[in-house]
Write a structure and sequence with these properties.
By secondary structure, the protein is α/β, with parallel strands linked by helices. The protein has helices at about 20-30, 35-40, 50-60, 85-90, 105-110, 115-125, 140, 145-160, 165, 185-205, 205-210, 225-230, 245-255, 255-260; strands at about 10, 40-45, 65-70, 95-100, 130-135, 170-175, 215-220, 235-240. The structure holds 2-phosphoglycolic acid.
Amino acid sequence: MANTRRPLISGNWKMHHNHFEAIQTVQKLAYALNPADHDAVDVSVHPPFTDIRSVQTVIESDEMRLIIGAQHCHFEEKGAFTGEVSPAMLAKLNVALVIVGHSERREVFGETDDDVRRKTAAVIAYGMTPILCCGETQEERAAGGTDAKVTGQVKAGLAGLSQDQVAGLVIAYEPIWAIGTGLTATPEDAQSACRVVRGVVADGWGREAADAVRIQYGGSVKPVNAPDLMMQPDVDGLLVGGASLDPDEFARIVAYHRLIG
Ligand code: PGA
């Protein structure tokens, strides 16, 4: 059966762009993309929390076909969690996609697999779609541990979800050694890990969910490597950090589809 998964290219801005810069970036991005891009590819932007309301306003008032995303959230609806933002607050701003368990959250802020599982479930409970991140370190890779690491993270993150819930979500394979380093996994390496991820979903949640779940690759994605990555059968999208900050460069990544048809 032909793959009917819709490509998803997401820009993770991390801690960059204040709300003025965010508005400009989104306006330039909308200008750089054409209707054929939007027909072919879903495009999301994931600004810092302080930008989201401004980004929402400009996207909705100008009827841009961009999906509003967030980089992270807490799993509780409300409460005494100083500094945190709840999934309910994001849903209220029409956020549709939330990155969960990014390696920087896991490594710098100590998020555990159990936190990631709770956040994934909370994002779904508020009608949004998680982008569940997984990926191995350089040491794990050198020791041949890529598949085991990714398998463990995906199983733990999706625990307790139904087949339908898993079918509707997004998983991002992001090898940690490739994030922000300029080192990209080869298309074959990306395919191999994304195939493992799909296999984990098939084993735990059935073939239908595995065929439907969208899997992104992330880690030093650039306009020049996007087409080869997107040609891989199990790579359905890209999670882009540094290159998403420049709207023209990000638009050139989205334009991969013009090259591979
Ligand atoms: P990068 O980041 O594209 O700058 O490597 C990717 C990510 O962390 O999502």
